[in-house]
Amino acid sequence: MNSSNYPSRLLESAVKEFTRLPGIGKKTALRLVLYLLKQDKEVAFRFTDTIRLMREEIMYCQSCYNISDSSTCNICADTRRDKQLICVVESIRDVMAIESTQQYQGIYHVLGGVISPMDGIGPDDLTIVPLEEKLKDGLVTEVIFALSTTMEGDTTNFFLYKRFTKYNVPMTTIARGISIGDELEYTDEVTLGRSLINRLPFENTL
Amino acid sequence: MNSSNYPSRLLESAVKEFTRLPGIGKKTALRLVLYLLKQDKEVAFRFTDTIRLMREEIMYCQSCYNISDSSTCNICADTRRDKQLICVVESIRDVMAIESTQQYQGIYHVLGGVISPMDGIGPDDLTIVPLEEKLKDGLVTEVIFALSTTMEGDTTNFFLYKRFTKYNVPMTTIARGISIGDELEYTDEVTLGRSLINRLPFENTL
User: Fold this and answer.
1) What percent of chain A has pLDDT over 70?
2) Is-same-fold flag (B3-42; B82-174)?
């Protein structure tokens, strides 16, 4: 579709802005813009104003770097949470995923990514220093690494493990194995191999 | 994903606004919002402000109801266009599709939809009266219907045909047939049947 086909520059700019978002192509962008045009002005303005306000006012928890409406997030502010148990995750989406399991009662530390030289992300771009600070007083009972099982995730895991060894804090990673519901024959060898090595006493799985 | 899992109300409202758009689910909405959060404020604000401005200032051509930056669209304002040849389409997207073929030199009339009792859209919700006005002076040489080949499109087509017969203007519809590149054996019977009935002298297709 030639850009000169847009009947309006305002329309064209709006479509262009939508195509900057990940996974939104030209056709989808046009559909979204035409949808917003069909709505009452108030509806369209509520859309833009809500997003603007969010970007303007959202904060990050000063302790765990989770997204928050205040300087301390709900999880860190929750007195029932175990503050000596820290789960290290890549992003706020991982916090939401773990929270939805309702299996975890500790707090989090959001790294803000993983070390990835290809994308120009080094240790200094992540919240590693404040994480290290939390380990120095010796009160933390366990650090759980819950990073992606990608090369970058594993590298970051290993980097943090080496760096924090001197603090003598127990460090664990979440279990990797066959997903529940998966069939053995369709599982890749690496996962299958790992799940054999890390086999558990049967009683533990009951 | 439980809504209580959102670490921030601002985030939750922004996600909710994105999910109102067609084809955007909760997971996609969250990905888009987190993307906008990662961008500089200026980038996020340019997104919201461009869309707000578009919704605020966009106009519709007073003659053909196409989207426009002024009260007369570029096509209607173009002196090289044949103003006596009117192509009736459902939406501005169809105008863009036909324009991109570069085969049409007349003007358009955007109906704003098709008659669809199921969706509560009757003739009065469309721009039928102003279209009729254009036919009254007897200057229009041809009206081309380019509506969808759906039941609603065909109904609308027939409705307009009956209503405009008295003006004695030639009315045509765009050809329906086998898409170029399609194989006969995979074409549905209705299309194949129609394309047989509406066969053309071979010379016309050269």
Assistant:
1) 97
2) no
B157-205 pLDDT, tens digit per residue, is 999 999 999 999 999 988 888 787 778 777 788 888 887 788 777 677 6
pLDDT value of position B181: 78
Per-residue model confidence (pLDDT) at position A206: 65
Check CB contact of A60 with chain B, cutoff 8 Å: no
Q: Which CATH architecture has domain B3-42?
A: Orthogonal Bundle (1.10)
**Are B31 and A37 inside 8 Å of each other by CB?**
no
Please tell us whether the domain made up of B82-174 is placed in CATH 3.40.50.300.
Answer: no
A162 Cβ under 8 Å from any chain B Cβ: no
Q: What is the pLDDT of residues B92-108, one digit of tens each?
A: 989 998 888 888 999 99
pLDDT higher than 70, residue B4: no
- The one-letter code for the residue type at B20 is R
Q: What is the pLDDT of residue B1?
A: 40
The hierarchical CATH code for the domain A3-57 is: 1.10.8.420
CA atoms within 13 A on the CB side of A12: 12
CA distance B193 to A172: 68
DSSP code at position A137 = T
Mark which residues 93-152 of A lie under 8 Å from B by CB.
Answer: 93, 95-96, 99-100
Q: What's the DSSP call for residue B109?
A: E
The answer to whether A129 and A102 have CB atoms below 8 angstroms apart is: no
Q: Is domain A79-174 classified as CATH 3.20.20.70? A: no
Rounded to a whole number of angstroms, the distance between the first and last alpha carbons of chain B is 58
